[in-house]
Amino acid sequence: MHAERLEARYLLAAFVPDDPFFFPGVAAGAAEGYYGQWHLDNRLPIAPGLNAGLDAGLPGAWARGLTGTNVTIGILDYGTQGDHPDLRDAFRNDVSWDFGASAARNRASDTRGAPVIDTVGYDGDNHGTAVAGVAAARGGNGIGTTGAAPQAGIAALRVLGRIAAGRSSDEAEAAAIRYQGQMNAAGQPDPFAPVNWAAGVPVRVKNHSYGPEQPFIPSARGTILPALAESAGHGVIHVVSAGNERGTYPTADANKSELNADPNVITVAALGSDGRFADYSSYGANVFVTAPSSSTGMFAIATTDRTTFDRGYNLDPEDADPFLADVADGDVTSTFGGTSSAAPLVSGIMALGVEANPSLNGRMAKHLLVRTSRIVDAGNPSWTTNSAGRSFSNDYGFGLVDAAAFTQAATAVVSLSPLATVASPVIQVGSRFTRSQPTLTATYTVPDTAASAPLESVRVRLNVGNLQTNLRVYRNGSGSGRGAISGDLEAFVTSPSGTRHRLFSDDRFLVGTDSQRDRYGAPGARPRATLAWTFTSNAYWGESAAGTWTIEVMNKVAPSQLVGRTGTWRNVSFEFDTGSIEFGTSRAAASIERSREGRAQEPASTAPVGVSSWLAAYGLAADSQTTKASAPRARRGRG
Q1: What are the Cα distances from residue 582, in Å, to 61, 127, 288, 417, 592?
Q2: N or C: fewer beta carbons within 10 Å in the chain?
Q3: What secondary structure does DSSP assign to 146-177, as a single string?
Q4: Last residue of a domain, one of 397, 415, 433
């Protein structure tokens, strides 16, 4: 009956954008070659190597009247400009907060969580405003752009940058993760007061377009993960950008970031307009889904920018906007991107999902994403299909998000089983990596009686000690030194049904460059003596946990260097999360499964054309700024 009631919502009028910069072309004053908001609805000519005709499937959801109405998205970021012309109708001051300002200043403000630093370009406090626009710029108001959830609310939660005296950045982040506009004993808004979850959850989706560049850094006193577990347990959906570190920092593998590796979040990678992973997009067994964003030489993302020409990105002296620099009073930019943009696109879609099914939570959303996300770049060797028939990739997760299929599936849900976790004991290994034994193996058998439901995520807690801490002795890890560091390690896990998948990768690709220093932290930092970390894998979704699991840990340092402090694998433990979802009818379930095969693309010109021909049709040369405007640079707020 719940699904039938929700189907009635589809009698609402379809949302059709009238926002001028939603559309490609020059009609609204953009320069020739402007690609519009292709990530929402891509109707541009297919051009191999530039435009694969893919998008996030928003028109199908909008056509059913879904706009995110009465759903609020929290933007944990640098400041978000709540009085921006394209955000002010969405802005909710009552659930916003600036964690860099005093409580008194927050309570007196009509735009809590607003930007502070007024500078053009990357040094300004600009990131959160662009992120908010991707998720929920007010659509249908005849100005600017539209967000994925064009009628959703926005809460500005300024947690990046300066933090108010007396609080740590981790304390502020944990408070922002929980914040629902709660009051303290004096009846005043206070994000550090306990949340009365029974009173309601006004901010149902929270977006995190930030993260560390360095690996294996836990939050102080473990503050972040309990906050995630608490809020997720009360229905808050947390969406996190995978990172922009591919080929640059050790967190190229997003499983080495605490926030990304937690099963209570949805980690989002980025897809370029050419239909391949963005060249900066971090990867990992923890990645869950992919969304369109910028990539070098491809289309970038149009979104809200801080107002006036004296702030924001659109007149950045280091990366001037080639299309929208002189329009709309400087309130829009066409050069945003990174996984910073991919994540809020998914956050907007989650808001549509909550509107379609108010019972939607993070676990339910994951079940739906598994079934409705579309396989892209099918020839990529990172794709593996497990014994349950689920295809998964460390580059793409379960594939490209499809808002139409996702929201349709949300209305068909009848029940979601309670989460059941099967935990192993701590398995003692006690073996050292040596020249004759660079790969070590451990196993654990899950009893048949302990796992009745299909798998969701698998978590692996690994402890390797006795690693090298002296960089002068280690040298570059290619054989001229002694010992091994955590970045030399890689691991694979094989399920009882034979699915073997990489749990985390080494970062040895950084060796031999100036970036080698970045493997260990800030300049002068020492490598850690012990790797103690919990990794998450989604590759076994739907399989049975019962049977024998095998983990292989490999030390990939040069064999001649496997002397001295080479690492001792002390122990390992597993946690297997299990659960199931039920849809209203077998017909509905079959339809949902078929959606993963990919909906037909309907671009304005279905005849493939060469890149040079496409550029010429839009008045561009092959070396124009279109091909470089999408560089992600520092816009992800990772820091």
Answers
A1: 22, 39, 21, 8, 12
A2: N
A3: --SSTT-EEEEEE-SS---TT--HHHHHHHHH
A4: 415
Where does the pLDDT of residue 374 fall: very low under 50, low under 70, confident under 90, or very high at 90 and above? very high
Q: What is the pLDDT of residues 579-595, one digit of tens each?
A: 999 998 756 666 677 56
In 3-state terms, what secondary structure has residue 593? helix
User: What is the identity of the amino acid at 220?
Assistant: A
By C-alpha distance, which of 255, 280, 279, 245 is closest to 505?
255
Global confidence as pTM: 0.92
Tell me how many domains the chain contains.
Answer: 2
- pLDDT tens column, 319-332: 789 999 989 999 99
* Phi, psi dihedrals of residue 315, rounded to the nearest 5°: -120, 30
Cα 199 from Cα 308, distance rounded (Å): 40
> Is 291 found in the same domain as 245?
yes
Structural domain contains residue 484: yes
* Within-domain flag for 325: yes
DSSP letters along 253-319, please? Answer: BGGGSHHHH-TTEEEEEEE-TTSSB-TT--B-TT--EEEE---TTS--EEEE--SSTTSBSTT-TTS
Find, among 584, 543, 551, 583, the residue nearest to 569 by Cα.
Answer: 551
Q: Which domain holds residue 486?
A: 420-579
- Answer yes or no: do 325 and 240 share one domain: yes
Tell whether 397 and 499 lie within a shared domain: no
Q: Please report whether residue 528 resides in a domain.
A: yes
72 by DSSP, 3-state: which?
strand
Residue pLDDT, tens place only, 436-483: 999 999 999 999 988 889 999 999 999 999 999 988 899 888 888 999
CB burial string 305-333: b at 16+ within 10 A, e below: bbbeeebbbbbbeebebbbbbebbebbbb
Q: Which CATH number does the domain housing residue 13 bear?
A: 3.40.50.200
Please indicate, yes or no, whether residues 408 and 487 belong to a single structural domain of this protein.
Answer: no
Q: Tell me the two tokens of residue 628.
A: 């470089």
Order of strands, sheet of 289-292, starting from the edge strand that comes earlier in the sequence: 97-98, 153-158, 72-77, 203-208, 237-241, 265-271, 289-292
**Rounded-to-integer distance, Cα 402 and Cα 404, Å:** 6
Same domain, 463 and 398: no
Element (H, E) at 178: helix 169-178
User: 310 falls in which pLDDT band (50, 70, 90)?
Assistant: confident
Measured distance between the N- and C-terminal CA atoms of the chain, rounded to whole angstroms: 47
* Residue 106 CB partners (closer than 8 Å, separation 6+): 97, 98, 112, 189
Q: Enter the DSSP assignment of 349.
A: H
Same domain as 330, residue 209: yes
Residue 596 lies in a domain: no
Token pair belonging to 232: 């997720």
Look at residues 380, 415, 450 and tell me which one is the last residue of a structural domain. 415
